[in-house]
Amino acid sequence: MPTVSQPLRVLPGWLSVTPPLIAILMALLLRNVIPALLVGIWLGAAALRSFTPQGIFTGLLDSFQVFVVGALADADHAAIILFSMMIGGMVGIITRNGGMARIVEMFVSRAKTAVSGQVSVWLMGLMIFFDDYSNTLVVGNTARPLTDRLSISREKLAYIVDSTAAPVVCIALITTWIGYEVGLIGTALEQIPAIDAPAYTVFLNSIPYSFYPIFAIVFVLAVAVSGRDFGPMYRAEQRARAGEVAPLSSEELPAMQGDNLEAKPDVPFRAWNAFVPLLVMIATLLIGLYATGSGDELMDIIGSADSYKAMLWASLLGALTAAVMSVAQRILTAEETVDAWYGGVRAMLFAMIVLVLAWALSSVTEALHTADYLVSILADSLPAPLVPATVFLLSAVTAFTTGTSWGTMGILMPLVVPLTWAVMGVSGMQDPEHMHLLYSAIACNLAGAVWGDHCSPISDTTVLSSMASSCDHIEHIRTQMPYALLVGGVAMAAGTIPGGYGVSPLISLPIGVLLLIGVLRYFGRVAGQEPATGASG
Description:
disordered C terminus
């Protein structure tokens, strides 16, 4: 039987990192994420073909027909889009029926200053701890009128929303992330017969070593309570105190802007018209997680739940509740209710386009084996105590260049656990006394993924934070990145590296918190005490 031979194209490893890096650099330089994402997708699609005139042209066609269509066709992506749009529609209704205005009045009556307003948003972020998408969209959209009223910048709102979403969800005991994380850990542990501990127990043991998420949550509170900021965030806050909550020159992600979504004139402001739909949505999400899960323990049930199905149920019932309440009280007519719902949905479209393009670029990096290349160049010849720190950096770089924390965890966890165990074996450390290395490496995979996600302009959760806060996306990245870099650096220096050498988290955590407060105290300034310097940047 004749055989057919075909030449195999081998791409240089550095090329796999080029598309996301080009996209990130263009986004930061142009301050516009759409063309940056399009160029990144095109460059990656062309690399998969060939850098010939025909390959470049075919790559352009593939970027839309293959990768963008693939991002839209994914069922989980479609669920997130529908969930986001239904949340937007619900917010449109409860804004138009006066419920949101009453909530703002209630918060304003208690939050008299920018400091108390920021603390209120931080507390709201902790309250919705069970899902990062729900947290981001609900807190951002609900808190924005409050922060605008108190002259808090949109950049600060987006930062608080972003840093109380994934950092909280990834370490809380019952969240939509836990099943995914525990499942990844369990699959990886199957490769190590010597470890027979349950995956959930291993996850719980890793939480004290999740220094970045813990420090991120604490640092947001420190910034809020102190009223101090530094770098681009300080300039944004100075501008906001002068009455300009968003830079006039920016192109905002239009969350609830420009769609006449203010309260209808002369309607009664009743808080329950906003609270009830929000509570229905939150309760439905929790019940949906329970109903779609399985197992004997609550942790197992929530961990195995279909979070996307629960999210869709929750957003649908929340929007329907808002609509029915508005019509039943004759606050809005059926036509006005539909118009308010559509206004909220329409306002989400631009951000959804960004989200779809970010997913498409993530697919390109997966096809180019970007993460595999990063592993190959960063994970060789490691001293055992430095394995967790290396894992953190590897996860951070992977999440930054791919824009996905879940993807980073999914790609690296099956590699990180056996790699850590192998290095421990070479160093003679496969014993209970040194299990902290494995716990820390697992925590660093999760924490590094969240850190990279926070700093990446092509991250879906970062896009959602900008969208929900109606903040210019690149300004959100520019103002948040110095804070994320500081917290990540302290997490490494005070937590991960000493932890690799056996220092207890009971020592590292308070030291890290004191370092963060000290840096903020020394370098931070209180906005409003000096003349404003104009738009940030």
